[in-house]
Amino acid sequence: MNSLTLLIKPAAGLCNMNCRYCFYKAASGERENRIMTEETVDVLIQKIKEYQPSALSVIFQGGEPTLAGLGFFEYFVQSVKNEINSPVSFSLQTNGLLIDDEYAKFFKTHNFLIGVSLDGNRKTNDRYRLSQSGESVLPQVLTAINILKKHKVGFNILSVIDNENAKDIESTYKYFKKHGFGYLQFIPYVDDASGISLSAESYEAFLKKSFDLWYKDFINGNYVSVRHIDNYIGILMGNPPESCAMCGVCGNYFVVEADGSLYPCDFYCKKEYCTGSVFDKKPFEMTEKQKEFIEQSMLIHKYCKDCKYYALCRGGCRRDRTDGYLKNKYCSAYKGFFDYAAERMEQLAAKLNK
Predict the structure, then answer these.
(1) What whole-number distance in Å separates Cα of residue 2 and Cα of residue 289?
(2) Has this prediction a pTM greater than 0.70?
(3) Annotated active-site positions, please?
(4) How many CA atoms lie within 13 A of 117 on its CB side?
(5) Using one digit for the tens of pLDDT, what is the confidence trace for 91-100?
(6) 91 forms bridges with which residues in the sheet?
(7) What pairs with residue 254 in β-bridges?
(8) Mind giving me the DSSP string for 42-111?
(9) φ, ψ dihedrals at 99, nearest 5°
């Protein structure tokens, strides 16, 4: 199976917000922030057609992808439908500020899955996620979500977890439940020079508390999808994780920047990791640089080899590893969490398998 997954950045690093924890903004000096041209779209889709994937997954991210304008997405999707015969899925991650009825109608028509970035209630969301002028964006985000709901567009909530947001998990979880948000994804913060961080201690506390909140609801018949928990239980049921961060090994997918340059991962969009361009003759064939990137993620720390939880943890995401991509900085957090919750997850997995 030669399926193809593309994470496309149609507006590069352009954004209409000023989030304090934005790791992507930190690398903005290494690229030209501009909107992807129709010429680049045409070349990209032609190269996809030549690759002949068995299935195609297109994920639009940013910056803020909707800054490319609705016309960009209309052109892209129609071009895909005209040229690609493989099954295609579309998704888009957004801050929601530009979502209106026209966008929502388009998303519904083409069966987009939308990821909306929202950290929690006003206190939590305003901690880091503010407008360019420093104002709260929460009312606009909630309006956008209501528009998506009105048009029956599938969506999930994406929340960043750092030391401070981790402390708010109970109020955040209850806030999301209150608003009827049934699909949640919590993303560990990526360290940079901002002074924001997520310690192993804070992450362990978050993992335990979020599981207790989820478990209580699940037992009482009020299921809320929390991505990392769903994946752990799925692994215990014998299924492969759907989250690349939980596979333990980097996958062969491509980030496509607005200028057509290619990278192996959203967290590694820097010049030294560039693997080529859509303007290359065969951009989706495995290069030595791509192969090296994936092989580095396969290295296993000596502690992992003998750990009883390795099948669940798998070393975690490469971006969280130190010592030459060997040891995960959250190793103690995962061990503490699995000691705390693995038995309950195993029991649930066994019941669900029946």
Answers:
(1) 19
(2) yes
(3) 266
(4) 25
(5) 999 999 999 9
(6) 59, 113
(7) 6
(8) HHHHHHHHHH--SSEEEEE-SS-GGGG-HHHHHHHHHHHHHH--S-EEEEEEE-STT--HHHHHHHHHTT
(9) -70, 125
